[in-house]
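Hi support team,

I'm opening this ticket because the web form for multi-chain structure prediction keeps timing out on my end. I have pasted the exact lines I submitted so you can reproduce it. The total is 999 residues across two entries, so I didn't expect it to be a heavy job. Is there a limit I'm missing, or should I split the entries? Thanks in advance, R.K.
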Amino acid sequence: MRRTAWAWLALSSLLPASARAATRPHYGGTLAVELSTAFTTLESADFPAGLAQPIAETMLRLNSRGEVEPWLAVAWQADADRRRWRFTLRTKVAFHDGEPLTGPSAAPLLLVALKKTYPDVTITAGGQALVIRSDRAMPDLLSDLANARTAIIRRSESNPSIGTGPFRVTGWEPGRKLMLTAFDDYWGGRPFLDAVAINMASTRANGDVFDVPFSATRRILAERTRLWSSPVEELVALVGTGVQPAALKAIALAIDREPLVNALTQRRGEAAFGLLPEWLSGYAFLFRTAPDAGRARQAAALLRLGTLTLSYAVSDSFARAVAERISLNARDAGINLQPTPNANGNLRLVRWRVESANVAVELQRLAGLLGVSETPALDAANPTALYEAERALLETQRVIPLVYLPVIYGMSPRVHGSDAGFALRLESLWVDP
Amino acid sequence: MSFRVKVFLSITASVVIAVWLVAWIVSTLVTRSFERQDTQRTQTLVTQFHREFERRGVEVARRIEAVANSDAVQQIAVNLNSPRFDTSRYFDQAQALAREQSLDFLEIVGPDGRIISSAEWPARFGYQESWLTPAVDWKGQGVFLKRIELADGSALGLITVRSVKAGDGALYVAGGQRLDQEFLTTLPIPDGMHVRLNTDFEGSTSPLIQEVRRQPRELARTSADATLTAIPLLGRDHQLLAILLVENSRAELASLRSYIQATAWAVGGGGVLLGLLLSLWTASRVTRPLRQLTASVRQVAGGQWDTRASIESNDEVGQLARDFNQMTEQLAEQRDRMIQAERVAAWRELARRLAHELKNPLFPLQITVENMQRARQTSPEQFDEVFRESTTTLLSELGNLKAIIGRFSDFAKMPAPELEPIDLNQIVREVVQLFDAQMHADGRPPIEANLLLNAHLPPVPADPEQIRRALSNLILNALDAMPQGGTLSISTDSLDRKVSLEVSDSGEGLTEEECERLFTPYYTTKQHGTGLGLAIVQSVVSDHKGTIAVHSQPGKGTTFRIELTT
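Hello R.K., no limit was hit. The queue was backed up. Here is the completed structure from your submission:
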């Protein structure tokens, strides 16, 4: 993780000066969150990007440098072959219904989450101890336990989501509204806010916190609204399905990423030449290329391509703008690439989100996305191997990285306490009376 | 063709022609009226289209002017020459401004012709907009039609351009509203009229559109279903950008025509039916008396002289019936008179014949008796001699009288024929053979018999004795006609279900009058004939249901022809 640590240092520069100069925090108040998107479950993985799920918590978590740090688990040990891990749970942690967090209460919830990744995993528990075993090595288990997908959460008849987080659910209308109330017995101390009201599918951009499209970021700045931005964590890429590799290569040569970054992301994003962002891999600059419309034109002329289609999600206006721009680039090279919403095009515009700080894990996920079934086991400590693995994925000529995107939230001047990190944590926010 | 059919055809033809003529005139007038109305409606719609076009143009110009004067555009214009000016910041500015002003198209273009922001194709920022050049007085250009390129094709727009001063250069604001089918929905379109805006006519195979493409001008084509008018819509450089198609349905006209046609058919059909009824009525009124009259004529011709036509009207037909009845009465009276005259003539002829025939033997009887008286008074010694001679003479002459009376008696007693199949040729040969000696008698010029008999003559049902007698009379008649000798020709032949027998002589022949009276009983041209020979022949032939005819010319002989049914 040290090779990416320097990137996290840069994240602190994203913090608005106003946040650092915030006044003294105080308790009370309700935070109104207006989201243009909607979610229908309270699973951590379904929660809006860039917004930390405040109901359930994970055993471990990533700090602002991308390093794993203790959270519900305060200590851990692994055997030499990493097939047996022993964790010690934090004491004085309680679920929202008052049940204390112990090894036996956490084990079945954790087992369900881990089974998705490690089918043969077993967990034995006693007191505050948890022992996780598997027949095969689990070198990435710590990253997995920091992933929101392994958050410890359970349900009851009266409450759809019972966790140990700083807020508990007091109202839930799937796809419409979520009401959260501060959990007084939170082990980390009661949050500043009394409550949080999250309105989904909202068209208003005047809440205390709201998601902001890239195209609006400069106008919002002009209105003196503060922005919170995550590191670039989402890859926008073209994935070819049934397109000959040479055609994809010609299209890749034709694409000029600079307008995508400058205009479509309003300089908030980063041009993507590799699959993983620079802050994560540390070698992304090695994949950098320059657009060459001339070579693209020559290649297209040799291929004698017919009309190709580029599909994108119809509800995604940013994807549409990217698709249309790429279509223009392709046209300059003599390639007829027709943007098509929600269709099985020859090329698909996909969004892929980084879920962990483990390069090896993320490369495996990318391989799955691209349909590359046989990928060798990667050593996260071997940057050369990781680089070679990513290059191999790029050379499959199935994908053209375009741009990395951050998640941006706008915050009204009354909101304070936002901190740099992968996600905006509601428990750290406080509002002016 | 019967009179009834003629009347029927005349009435039907009159009605049908009259109805067709009326239907054609009405249909033609209606069609012309509709076409006039179509033209007026089309022109009205085109006028409204141009008016709406102008109204929208004014509105578009006003909105583009508002965009050009907006703070956002003015800010871009002010910052344009700043070295820190970042055009990417404004790439979606046009979308917001277009939304504010309800514009479908809006582009903000820099002095270098590069698009800073495009509402209709946001991704096109940074690309060159080649048609926007500083050399044009854009305000003076007003509003014009232009084909606007879009990400998914193109669209027709009502466009205007305004330039905004930006330092030494100018910022261009170009935009407008879409001109499409929805634009046409604002027009008050009457029922039966359809308006289409054809902007994609490159691949059109319509002859009308092809013609408008070749030479952009308003054209109209009429088909059975509709009248289609094509109005070219030209761009700023007079290039054809769209074709406004106004379709006037002719369904109403077709319906009316169909109604007229149906009415004409109904009236025509009624006319035909009326013609039929009228012809039947007329025929019953006109042809029935004529047919009755015709039947009466046939009855009269068949010998029913007491037939009378019924007189049912006072018109020409009634008058004809009256004349017919009068004529028939006159003919019957004349016939009766003729019969009476013929009877009288026949009796007179009979009396004359009888007197003549009886007078010849009576005169010798008288002379002989007077000789006997004279011899008794003057020469008693010779009386016995005279008596013996005289009685011989008396007996001879009395025999003659008896023979004469017998012939008359035979004619009166002609029996009914007893029919049996006979060989006519055989009878001819037998009869001719009986006269052979007479034809070659000494002291008389020879007569040659020439027989031309058909060997395939079928048997004839006849009484052989009566046929022999008739043939004998004809041969005897022919021999008497050739006192100077000649040729007797007899021929037989087979006809259709008949046989013929011809007996010809080469004698002096007969006059036409003689031919007419030849078969009259007791009429003869011979000095010592009884006039019964040919009458007997005619009687025999008549009794056999046959016919006899005579053909003769003076100097060329006479031919008798008998035809008998087989």
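A quick check on our side: The interface with chain B takes residues 215, 218, 259, 262-264, 266-267, 321-325, 327-328, 338-339 of chain A (CB under 8 Å). Let us know if the file doesn't open in your viewer.
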